[in-house]
## 1
Amino acid sequence: MISHILFNFVKSKIPRVSSTELVALRSGNTSLDRQILLGKVSLPKKVISKQKFPQSKLNELYNTFDGSTIYPNDNNNKWINYLAKNKYFSFLINEEYGGIKLSVHELSNILTQVASLDPALGVSVMVPNSLGPGELLTHYGTQEQKEYYLPKLANGTYIPCFGLTGPYNGSDATGSIDEGQVINVNGKPMIKVNINKRYITLAPVANLMGIAFNLKDPQNLLGKSGITVALLERDHKGLIQNTHHNPMNAGFPNGTIKGEFIFDPSQIIGGTNNIGNGWKMLMECLSAGRGISLPATANASSKVASFGIINYIKTRTQFKIPLSNMEAIQEKVNSMVYNTWIIQSAICLTNTILDQGNSPAVLSAIMKQQTTERGREVLNHALDIHGGAGICIGYSNFLEKFYRAAPIGITVEGSNTLTRSLIIFGQGLNKSHPYIFPILESVLNNDINKFKKEFNSILGHSFKLYAKTFSIESNMNLEQQIINFACLTNFVALKGGALKSEQMLSGAMADIFSNLYLALGVQYYHNENNANIQLTDYVIQRLLKENQHNINKVIDNLGSERFFLQHLKAGVPNTCFHEERKIFSHILNDVNILNELKKNIVLDNNILDDLLKANNLPKDSNEYKMLHDKIINVGEFENSEYIK
Ligand SMILES: Cc1cc2nc3c(=O)[nH]c(=O)nc-3n(C[C@H](O)[C@H](O)[C@H](O)COP(=O)(O)OP(=O)(O)OC[C@H]3O[C@@H](n4cnc5c(N)ncnc54)[C@H](O)[C@@H]3O)c2cc1C
């Protein structure tokens, strides 16, 4: 009787879950996200993998890339063709199909290096190596499709892109997506679609398009309907690829795919069996993909900015002292290195988790949102410090192309605002929590026995966690804060479906969840690289302080539950200026820190190289003076009236 009342009460609290949400919840698996919500974490073991793509090939690209715009261009898409022919688009494709399938660590390192050379070049390499035809065919293609397309994708004959987004379906990707219909053509079922895709990366240069659409079958010719993914070649009759966008002048190909046309059902990835499975396929691939490419771009821009600025402030003087002697600058540099360290560390941990074969959807969402957001913060500080030299375009400006590209990472693959306020904690509650999704499923399936079992489990888990929050450990100890957050999560979960609209609360919980994962990343990175314990401690403490602010805020905004949680609140110690000075001195002088920051960024024959060289020379040498002038010089262009 009591369990029936409880069952009905929980049912009334549970939000309406759409079929697309259910697919997202069932995609991928869990990892440290679940351990955090269980209140106890153990870090994974490092995965050793062999390097497959020769460094000499990468060096060839770094030495020959001329900095020209990738797209639009007047060189017949020279750089896209170079990448395609040199197998840069084959890193997800198995060797049996001619690809060079890399470990996640190696892929991430290469993406970081290429993006550090040029973000547009980086985007061009990333797209074929993340969600798109190559990955979808590998996982879901028929044997015939794999044998036909994969070797041609691996050797660069096909240049792929993937189109989901249109003018009416952005964040709500399948809401008002393009539609298609199964029609009868001379006794054979065919598919007729009307598509209008925008923002599609590589579309202007692609000759193999993956497209997603909602297939309807009113005459029941194929007997299935729903979101479907198909492949089309560039010369397909009726397909129009005649316009491109210009995202922030970043210089990579991005454009539209439009048209009304008919194609054979055999062009559906996986064949007609996969009609209606499109969303599931996309979600499953996204579970891992979001955790690699965009974090690698943020890593590249943050490392270039931090490494460049640390060297620049030693060279640039004002008021007869180097910028590095000014506390206002030191404060900003500390913030830059704080965020850069977090990004590179969390990438290292995530790559290990992915290399173990996991596809943790929630951790990938955390990585996408946190690294791109923190990467933008690093660039903002860097621009302030670089002053006019960061604003004017020219040889010595190592920031502007990254600054222009930063908002792109924020918006694509699940816009950050939505990812933070709806996905990370919202989905995390259902996906990462050990008991909530089983309870949800038992309610959706009207399975009262399973409900009783899972409900008892969550009760036991909640009581145990609550008891552990009464500890002598400080609330700003990492292990303790994980327990406190897991306990707080169980209280916030009582809001049920209301949490979907309480996005400020969900966003604050997402920040705490994310910071805990990032702090574990910093700990993991230290265990692996042992660069500087003082910096490691500083970064972890700063993350935990940010968290304590949020924990206090969340508790103050809860209803009567807050009376049970007062002991989780704590005063947050103020920033200690003396400590900030000490950390800055480590950053400036510890060669281990600088070596970590410059890992995986291209330093040959560019302004970063000049900065490094200058700082290794005696200040009164002629060579130093020459380099100094080159460094502080900004681009000068002839006025139009002087151009003959
Ligand atoms: C340069 C670039 C490259 C791209 N490449 C591709 C590609 O290759 N293939 C492809 O298919 N698509 C691509 N996209 C599309 C990209 O994924 C979308 O831009 C993205 O999904 C956001 O959609 P939108 O721009 O229409 O924003 P909108 O959906 O209009 O969102 C506007 C704002 O509202 C917020 N928001 C929306 N819904 C909610 C909610 N429920 N709760 C809280 N906040 C919400 C968003 O976070 C955002 O801040 C690309 C876009 C760009 C700009």
Note: The longest strand covers residues 188-201.
## 2
Amino acid sequence: MRASRLEWAAQDFILERMTLPDDISDRARELHRRALVVDAHADTLTEMTDRGYDLDAAPSNGHIDFTLAGDGALDVQVFTCFVRPTYLPDRCADRVRAMLDTLERQLALFPERIALCRSGAALDEPRAAGKLGAVLAIEGGHAIENDLAVLAEFGRRGVRTMTLTWNNTNDWADGCGDEARHGGLTDFGRDVVSAMEDWGMVVDVSHAARSTFDDVLAVARKPLIASHSCADALRPHVRNLTDDQLRAIAATGGVACVNFYPRFLVDSDDATLHDVLDHVEHFLSITGPRHVGLGGDFDGIPHGPRGLENAAALPRLTEGLLARGIPDDDIVALLGANLARVFDGAEPAARDNLGAEAAAH
Ligand SMILES: [Zn+2]
């Protein structure tokens, strides 16, 4: 499955040329470099696991690797272990384990270039050492196979956030694109939310049905994130967030992160950077600047919007925000400081309990 090194070398050359957009002002580039840039959702681990490549050289249509993230374009990536429902019922956890192995392989191969932001470590630590920060996530609560001990195992391996569902309804939570079987969360679903919060994991409501979202609000005691969703007011879609949902996330102290998937931005495949800026501005208008973030869905979408094709293009977003008159401090907040605040604040008082409680279930 692995491509030859020669093939990678040729792709390196292409990536090198793509990496530094030259149409960015010094002011935007400086601000972008200064900001801690955190992206809340990418499916790169799926691509790497299935296609067999490493972060030193993504294929030419890849959206994230060390080169593309370089020069301060992207400082911390939440690497998501997405479990397609085809792995149900009993191969979901193994699928996550395979993707965790993929990330651990990167840590072993490139100790000078990537560091895992484990619980207890601030998100800006890898950047200070010149490394890409990696935060581990799970997409689709069915991944834990209805077992809190499995959730605890993933937590011990570094997973710090999870979407309760993917589009599918699982045994304990309704998903946004499927039959409503529970009217939101079941009792076990509420236990999952509580366990995540007890163990320092951030609860992610992207992909949740609106009934699930409401049930999470009733249970959650800590800030929530929506890692990769757009504004329903601009593009009505079951995957997008209504203004009420945006306000509710902000009220928890959490962060809603704008997705770059063209179909969530506009009613076609033909979105541009300006559409992303429209959604960011809408989020800002509803929640204020402390509750907005980015979750581009890179490597999980066929292509990004024009002007925002991969991680290397992220400074263009900063340029666009400046052009729209967004204050520097607000740009720094939404580029990543807001997400860093939520992850750092999710830390439990005592981490030693992780798994001890699960063993009791
Ligand atoms: Zn998703």
Note: The first strand starts at residue 38 and ends at 42.
